[in-house]
């Protein structure tokens, strides 16, 4: 059996299914998600689809200007979208601390914490992973559902014991 066949699995989806298709029946109204790496690529697409489903999206980005461009495109396509931009550089522990403090002081709840950028920075991968863990540690008490959604996208391999 070829692992990457085009046939649909038990969920009704395959590797070629889009985020819009997978979330078609989902109403995310009342939910809040932080998406890192939201200024480009899969982070931007995740932000767009979550906003399409009614989720309040916090785009955590290093490059505010690029984040604004993505936000504008989302709001142009989805006028009712609730999208905010906050600066976050996962290669900087000071930035992680500031982001967490600012988010906590906003009084928002948190339902999803989605990481798409922790591997992309110039420092060592270990530092980026540790800073990602620190952000999760600082925000975990805000998670308002029994099982928080934390998604990681990593380019390469990472051994776990």
TrEMBL record:
Family annotation (Pfam families): adh_short
Transmembrane parts of this sequence: none
Domain of life of the organism encoding this protein: Eukaryota
Name of this chain's protein: Short-chain dehydrogenase
């Amino acid at each position: 059996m070829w692992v990457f066949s085009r046939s649909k699995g038990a969920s009704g989806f395959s590797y070629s299914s889009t985020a819009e298709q997978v979330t078609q029946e989902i109403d995310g109204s009342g939910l809040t998600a932080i998406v890192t790496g939201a200024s480009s690529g899969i982070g931007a697409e995740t932000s767009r689809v979550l906003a399409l489903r009614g989720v309040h999206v916090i785009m955590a980005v290093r490059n505010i200007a690029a984040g604004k461009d993505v936000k504008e495109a989302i709001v142009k396509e989805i006028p009712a979208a609730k999208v905010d931009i906050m600066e976050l550089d996962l290669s900087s522990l000071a930035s992680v601390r500031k982001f967490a403090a600012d988010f906590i002081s906003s009084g928002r709840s948190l339902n999803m914490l989605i990481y798409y950028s922790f591997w992309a920075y110039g420092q060592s991968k270990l530092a980026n992973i540790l800073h990602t863990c620190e952000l999760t540690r600082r925000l975990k008490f805000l998670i308002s559902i029994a099982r928080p959604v934390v998604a990681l996208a990593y380019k390469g391999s990472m051994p776990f014991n």
